[in-house]
Design brief:
Elements: H1 11-15, H2 28-34, E1 40-45, E2 48-53, E3 59-61, H3 67-81, E4 86-91, H4 95-99, E5 104-107, E6 113-117, H5 118-123, H6 130-142, E7 146-148, H7 155-165, H8 169-180, E8 188-194, E9 197-208, E10 211-219, H9 225-237, E11 242-244, H10 252-259, E12 265-267, E13 269-273
Parallel strand pairs: 3-4, 10-11
Antiparallel strand pairs: 1-2, 2-3, 4-13, 5-13, 6-11, 6-12, 7-8, 8-9, 9-10
């Protein structure tokens, strides 16, 4: 097995599997966006794609396509290279395939995707959304924001916004890659404008007939209501019933923040390893 970087020409190959898995990790856009941040590489053979991460220890994602062929290939590769075989990002529906290979399965909470009902974000009804309503009300008292769905008209301003407010390596490079390839990746989104300047923006793509995947939601954090406004306006622009907002990567602050928006359910994923 020879692993390589993903290129923009690999998109059609990944798109064949886009609707076979509702989690975020197997989309071309995700792999392309984060391949440097997470040190991702791919191997493709006869309709099977294996994604490898070398961020810390070597870990393999669930093989796409012929999963059994992918697992066997990885096991052989690990044996030849003295690597402990570990698979991650395994959707619940694929656990049995790994059990057939006598893997021990364990929930990977840090990788669970947050799935939200669009109607919840559209209305912010009930006591569980009291904070969002209060933040939104406070935001309108201080600002007069405008939401523009034509994110492509603001690409340069969005880049400037990222440099000014979110220039950490884990956000900067992936977000710029998305903005530079917005048409090729079939991304949509919106921009919050205050006094002629970008104060927040989002980027998303259609994941299935009833769900979108929100890749980017960035605000200037000058007011806690900015994100509530961005999410609420995004909800008004889509017809899909659910929004996948990816995982929290095990970051405590990000986990608490996503939980405050009351996900409808969590898309579970698992780790497979030999004891």
């Amino acid at each position: 097995m020879i692993f390589r970087k993903v290129t923009i020409n690999d998109k059609p190959m990944f798109d064949r599997y886009k609707n076979s898995c509702s989690c975020s990790d197997y989309l071309f856009s995700y792999v392309f966006m984060y391949q440097d941040s997470y040190k991702l590489r791919i191997w493709e053979d006869n309709g099977t794609i294996v994604i490898r991460s070398d961020l810390t220890d070597t870990i393999f994602f669930m093989p796409l396509g012929d999963t059994e062929h992918g697992i066997k290939s990885v096991l052989g590769y690990c044996k030849e290279n003295n690597i402990k075989p570990i698979f991650s990002k395994i959707p619940e529906g694929s656990v049995s395939v790994f059990k057939d290979f006598n893997f021990h399965m364990e929930e990977d909470r840090d990788s669970f995707d947050y799935i939200f009902k669009n109607s919840d974000l559209l209305e912010y009804k009930g006591k569980e959304f009291r904070n969002q309503r209060n933040n939104l009300h406070s935001y309108f008292k201080d600002y007069t924001p405008v939401f523009d769905r034509d994110v492509k008209a603001y690409i340069d301003k969005c880049k400037e916004f990222v440099f000014n407010h979110h220039n950490s390596p884990d956000k900067l490079e992936p977000t710029l890659k998305m903005l530079d390839n917005i048409d090729l990746l079939h991304l949509k989104g919106g921009v919050v404008i205050n006094n002629g300047e970008v104060s927040a923006f989002c980027l998303y793509e259609k994941l299935s007939e009833d769900m979108i995947l929100s890749h980017v939601e960035l605000t200037d954090n000058s007011h806690r209501g900015a994100h509530a406004y961005l999410v609420n306006e995004l909800a008004k622009t889509i017809s899909e019933s659910y929004i996948n907002k990816e995982d929290d990567m095990g970051i405590p602050g990000l986990r608490r923040f996503k939980e405050t928006y009351n996900p409808s359910y969590m898309f579970k994923k698992y780790i497979a390893y030999y004891k």
